[in-house]
Amino acid sequence: MSIGTAAPTLEERAAAPHHFIQHKSIQENYNVGAFEKDALACLEDLFKKHDVVIMVGGSGLYVDAAVKGLDYFPEVDPKIREGLNNDLESKGLEYLQNQLKELDPKSYETIAIDNPHRVIRALEICIGSDKPYSSFLNKGKEKRHFKTITVGLKADREIIYNRINQRVDIMMEQGLLEEAKGLIEFQSLNALNTVGYKEIFNYLNDEWTLDFAISEIKKNSRRFAKRQLTWFKRNEHTLWFDYLEDLGNIINAINESISKNN
Fold first, then answer.
1. What would the pLDDT profile of 97-133 be if each residue is shown by its tens digit?
2. Is the C-alpha dihedral spanning 204, 208, 214, 216 positive or negative?
3. Residue 217 and residue 142: Cα distance in Å, rounded?
4. Which own/partner contact pairs does 110-116 have at CB distance under 8 Å and 24+ positions apart?
5. How far apart are alpha carbons 35 and 20 in whole angstroms?
6. Domains of the chain (ranges plus CATH)?
């Protein structure tokens, strides 16, 4: 899955040690809760040898899981999720969205409403606990034993979107189609229900043309980027820099922030 996930190249991985790159099988059930535990264990080990480590992301939820901690929810009957997945198949995402809007209007307005996994997760908590999913959020989390400095790179939206379109074209040139063909027998797995693969699977299943599938990858990637920007902009302490900013200036600002935090 190296192409579709834009995994760091061997050269990039040789330049600096990386962690959690292709360390799991797509058939393993791995989620943000498991990542939080693994990330904290890795950080604890790294801080024995280094004063500073760098985390790069990605998914805002996974970043927050590592640096802030997760909200914890009650156990619910797995049959509830099974029923919601059946509803998604038979009635569609809009049906589930409307159900969430009725049970938890706050979550309806704040979660990634076009992401079926997030909608189903919120709904199963609402139904299983008889309380809104949003009522379990931000109820106090385990304090971290490290300090975090968040750095963000910004560019005009037109530049970001053009880069995304270009990146998808490069992925296709590198062989994304062939990679997806080799994975099609696993298309029902959660790990492959992601932007880049699900659109190509629609082409391979004769549902879309290849040109339309590529255009959908670009569109869905742009939407994902927009959600990322929204998520990361909520952190008022982020040090934002233009993507063309001189690297020395960025390093100086980070060092200054480290000095203040010590």
1. 999 999 999 999 988 888 898 899 999 999 999 999 9
2. negative
3. 38
4. 110/134, 112/227, 114/223, 116/88
5. 9
6. 31-69 (no CATH), 78-136 (1.10.20.140), 149-262 (1.10.287.890)
